Amino acid sequence: MSDYILSESGVIRTSDNASIPNDDGNRDWREYLEWLADGNTPDPIPEMMVDPNIAETETIKLAAKNKLVSLGLTEPEAATVAGVEESNPA
User: Is 4 exposed, middle or buried (0-12, 13-18, 19+ CB in 10 A)?
Assistant: First the structure.
């Protein structure tokens, strides 16, 4: 089990089940991004938590990927960590 689990609106810290929103102003979110930049990987969103009617998931993944790139990860590394499927250029 990882220190974090992805959620629809950010992550859940497993040590205390705190829900941490995707918000750069949130100290816990910044700590999570540092944890990612150190090469860690969160657990995926549990299937029972996924609402198929919410398109927000891909937006969150893309935002996480972009933030990871800004912290120094390569595009492919950030895509893998954030769970974004990269399309192959033709």
Answer: buried
CB 18, CB 11: distance < 8 Å: no
Partnered with residue 20 across adjacent β-strands are 11
Amino acid at 42: P
Q: Going residue by residue through the chain (90 aa), what tens digit of pLDDT does each one get?
A: 799 999 888 999 999 999 999 999 999 999 999 999 999 999 998 776 556 555 567 778 888 888 888 888 888 888 888 888 765 544
* DSSP secondary structure of 26-73: -HHHHHHHHHHHTT--PBPPPGGG--TT-THHHHHHHHHHHHHHHTT-
**pTM of whole model > 0.70?**
no
